[in-house]
Amino acid sequence: MARPRAPELFDDRSTAAASADDAGPGPRPGHDRGTNAAGDSFAPLAERMRPRTLDEVVGQRHLLGPGRVLRRAIETDRIPSLILWGPPGTGKTTIARLLAAHRGAAFETLSATGAGVKDIREVVERARVRRGGGIGPATLLFVDEIHRFNRAQQDALLPHVEAGLCRLVGATTENPSFEVNAALLSRARVFALQSLSIDELAGLLRRALEDRERGLGQLGLVADDDLLRALAAHADGDARRALSDLETAVDLLPDGVTTLSPAHVADALGRKALRYDKAGEEHYNVVSAFIKSMRASDPDAAVYWLVRMLESGEDPMFVARRLVIFAAEDVGNAEPQALVLAQAAAAATHLVGLPEAALHLTQATLMLALAPKSNAALASYAAARKEVARSGALPVPMSVRNAVTAMMKAAGYGVGYRYPHDFDGGVDSEHRSFLPEPLQALRPGTLARVGALGWEAQALARLHAARGGGSTPATREDTRDDPSEG
């Protein structure tokens, strides 16, 4: 059977994301859905709920919070030309509109997907006429998807931005250092916007449900917090998409029904509702099944439970954190690359988000399920902690104390220390334990519970051979009945 191409894995989500940018569904018969500032009751919910003040903006506290850089620039009326770089639905257009409103400036907008040099010149000419002898209103030119302008189009903006005839606000989802030419970048400040968190999006959805003027408050709808969080998780940090999905779910409600259910939301998102309450028992049941499947080296079950979590709206970073923990707790040095891959998957998930991050999480899940297992890190820490609690703060052996003064040397600090690199293989075959003196009689492996599989077993065997055979260090088989293992 042919393998699906990567985009096909996410066709349902891609369609949902695209629909969020459309005009939006029409109102339910017999229901007035509220109006926007212009009195347009047919505008999509995302447009009606567009913030009117800086305090209404959801997210971007690092830029717009009290005392933050962009807020200070706005409040002191020292707004530079700027480029807003961030994922879709994070407020780029909204911030541009609020900047224009704050300055009392005319708001001109161009989309770089269709505008050309001729359109730029027309906007500039209108700005010149509007400004008159310097006493008329200023013009703020918002260029959406500015990264799509070619060099000639970007160059056409330069003299007018430099002269201050137009204050430029560009919006881009692409790294401007790669997509915007250096001359334009040098005349504008770049501000990076962040995807909205699940909590921020859930709060926005709650506001939309309760807002009687612009939102859906007049419908008297009921939706529990878990349902709104599931909608928020599906939106992947995009406020427009979250509001569009909510609006679609509301439009699918039968007449007379005022309670949003998982089934309505599933219909709106185009997929089957899955039972998964992130604050309840089912959450912990599924997470437990996921962890135990990897621990049991059952890759089929592990990837199944992974998909159950993600498709039910779990925060992908929660899953990523569990993978990083599992890599150290259950694989450890049996396969040292496990932790590296788990960390890489977490970083990739943070960078790209869903749906594509599902691939990184799946790759890490399969690797951890297939890897040799060792809980040596957990067992070793527990054994050493138990010994420290039993014996207390024993003194450091004199041979490994650092003699940094003549008095310390005279007191015997460092006496008897043998430098390992002076011996073949970097191992002293006559090594004496560096544990505190009362513990030096402990059998090797009493505290370091090295496993019998993978890299750590090979490393232990190499060390044992380098020390001439000596006493065989304990492996997990030797210590598995120790109650400290938990």
Your description of this structure?
This protein is mainly alpha-helical. It has four domains: 22-48 and 197-269, Helicase, Ruva Protein, domain 3 (Orthogonal Bundle); 60-192, Rossmann fold; 281-370, Zinc Finger, Delta Prime, domain 3; 396-485, no CATH class. The protein has 22 helices and five strands. The protein has a five-stranded parallel sheet. The protein is extended, with a radius of gyration of 31 Å. Mean pLDDT is 80; it is low at 1-33, 272-276 and 471-486.
Shape: extended
* Rg estimate, integer Å: 31 Å
Which class of secondary structure composition applies to the elements? Answer: mainly alpha
Q: Work out the oligomeric state of the chains in this entry.
A: single chain
Strand adjacency order, main sheet: 2-3-4-1-5
Number of helices: 22
What is the average of the pLDDT values?
80
Q: Beta-strand percentage?
A: 5-15%
Number of domains: 4
Largest sheet: 5 strands, parallel
E-strand count: 5
Low-confidence stretches: 1-33, 272-276, 471-486
What is the CATH H-level superfamily of the largest domain?
A: P-loop containing nucleotide triphosphate hydrolases
Task: List the helices and strands in order.
Answer: HHHHEHEHEHEHHEHHHHHHHHHHHHH
* Annotated CATH architecture of the largest domain: 3-Layer(aba) Sandwich
For the termini, the CA-CA separation is: 45 Å
Q: Do you know the CATH topology of the largest domain?
A: Rossmann fold
By CATH reckoning, the class of the largest domain would read Alpha Beta
How much helicity do the residues have?
A: 40-55%
